[in-house]
Amino acid sequence: MNIRNFLALLCFFWSFQLTAQEGPLFKLHSHNDYLQNVPFWTAFSNHCASIEADVLLVDGQLMVAHEKESVKAGRTLESLYLEPIRKAAQLGLEPSMDFQLLVDIKTEAYATMEVLEEMLENYRDILSDGSKDGVQVVVSGSRPDPNDYSKYSDLIQFDFQSTDLPRDLPWDKIALISLPYSGYSSWNGKGRLVAEEEKVLKELVQQVHNANRPIRFWGAPDSKTAWKAFFDLGIDYINTDQPNKAYEYLRKMPSNVVGSKHQHEIYQPQYLVDGQEEPIKQIILMVGDGNGLAHISAGMYANGGELTLTQLNHIGLVKTQAADDFTTDSAAGATALATGEKVNNRAIGYSVNDTPLQNLPELLRQYNFNSGIVTTDHVTGATPSSFYAHRKDRGMIGGIAQDLSKSQLNLFVGAGKNDFVSGGRSYIKDLEQSGFVMAKSLGEIAQSDQARIGYFASIQGLPKVTNGRSGYLLQAAQNALAFLDSKEAPFFLLIEGAMIDSGGHINDAEMVVEEEIDFDVAIGEVIKYADENPGTLVLITADHETGGVTLPQGSLAEGQVEFEFSTHDHTGIMVPLFAYGAHANEFTGVYENTAIFEKITKLVKKYHYKSEK
């Protein structure tokens, strides 16, 4: 074995050990796997329930190849399959060794069977004879007459290849039914099966199952779409030439096909001044961290086909690149929103020239605006801190916490109280000395007549919605709006749904959907506030997309959608911006993320005057 094959084999052992305990709900048939460098190990490490070897009787030996022209010295049924199977059993990699070896005979049946039967006796210790666990040898291709099946060893069963299934067949020697896919369907594995062909395949599956046997189709499409379709049809052995890709896809499929346990009734906007030149008194910026168009689509489908967000009419597309990278992080993305400047990744309100940048709350204070932030993240998280802090790196948590007391914010709500206790010093005292009153509950915020108020929702981070956080963002938004509204002054409010991004990073489809819907509940509350207060501009966008999400399939009737992630990181895909209320029409089109700050600033200057203070 050459070094490349040896290293590949080590990788297969490692991946097998990682997944050996999973017990997949599907069965793969590894077809043409002898074309792999290490054919048995490739199929075995990907938990194939059926492993096929094409064999030819050549000079008394069972050679593995599709035709005589492809025969290569040394590549025998024993060397490529039976000996590795024994090695796997000796190593205890799979205690039951409960899979089938499908021997597809390409030469004359009876002569080949004679050699095969004699050979298998030498491997009785690892093979099943029907009374014990072990590998089941199933003969396919050129086979003896069914009337002769019973004459062969108890180590051998057969593949039957017809839909004519009379009772007098030697059923005790028939392991499965294999059929040519092209005889029943012309679908190529792209798009969807047409209803007529789907019906035919379902009936075939049912017919074979009624005979109490598994079914396999050969010559079938070999793609992700096909694997899922065949799984849904109940085909027992899914045929593939790509065992690794098929196994990974089908293994993840149950967690990647999701709906929602938190569907909600959307709020229907009234559109009273939507897009009109109404003087702006309130600006509410909502950031779904990592929230791309696919994430929004998934939440919409899982919520019965609509969100409050998708009722909005004014939509733009936002470019998200950082100053030093095609793909932004949250710090640079949020800083662009907060300051109107492109900065390097990891920078919080800090320019490429190493100088602090004026953020929206600082600018708006000059126009007598109050400001606040609400987040499901730590208060010191990259997105919220970009609206009050000035630090070269987002990892400078102590400095970011210190900056909050120096900020122009009137309100903050978020997690991470421990971030404000560092090195024996409490930055919470600095907050209190700067005028922040620390609330003990969300409910206190709306009733407060203080000029500044803060609330830590947890010592560390908040749980995700699926672990019990449902309702927090809605209540935080309600109380923040009530607090700022009571001041009888214009205000700016940032509301961040942070954990859409977290779900994208860990490729957790359920988390993305539930966080999306939770964010939409808060959006409904904000849109309702805008309808009740006509001078409100609502902007809903993202700092970047996370996960490289696509939605290959779904079910509108069941409220389910299938996710496919291409990365665990951010991407450079444009993100949507939805605008509602006064001057919403000015946010359509395609533009840089810095333009959002510029457009807000222009509107503020149009209707408000700088304070002389």
What would your notes on this structure say?
- The chain is of the alpha/beta class.
- It folds into 2 domains: 19-257, Phosphatidylinositol (PI) phosphodiesterase (TIM Barrel, Alpha-Beta Barrel); 282-491 and 500-524 and 591-607, 3-Layer(aba) Sandwich (Alkaline Phosphatase, subunit A), CATH 3.40.720.
- The protein contains 18 helices and 28 strands.
- The strands form 6 sheets. A 10-stranded mixed β-sheet has the order 17-18-14-13-19-11-20-27-12-28, sandwiched between helices.
- Strand 7 (174-180), helix 5 and strand 8 (215-218) form a beta-alpha-beta unit.
- Helix 8 crosses helix 17 (509-532), helix 9 (330-339) packs parallel to helix 18 and helix 12 packs parallel to helix 13 (427-433).
- It is elongated and about 105 Å long.
- Residues 3-21 have low confidence and may be disordered.
Spell out the blueprint of helices and strands:
Layout: H1 3-19, E1 28-30, H2 39-45, E2 50-58, E3 61-64, H3 77-91, E4 100-105, H4 109-120, E5 136-141, E6 156-160, E7 174-180, H5 195-210, E8 215-218, H6 224-233, E9 238-240, H7 243-256, E10 257-258, E11 282-288, H8 293-302, E12 314-319, H9 330-339, H10 360-365, E13 370-378, H11 382-385, H12 397-405, E14 411-415, E15 421-422, E16 425-426, H13 427-433, E17 436-438, H14 442-447, E18 452-456, H15 472-485, E19 491-497, H16 499-505, H17 509-532, E20 536-541, E21 545-546, E22 549-550, E23 554-555, E24 560-562, E25 564-565, E26 570-571, E27 575-581, E28 589-592, H18 594-607
Parallel strand pairs: 1-2, 1-9, 2-4, 4-5, 5-6, 6-7, 7-8, 11-19, 11-20, 12-28, 13-14, 13-19, 14-18, 17-18
Antiparallel strand pairs: 2-3, 10-24, 12-27, 15-16, 20-27, 21-26, 22-25, 23-24
Helix pairs in contact: 1-2, 8-17, 9-18, 12-13, 15-17, 16-17
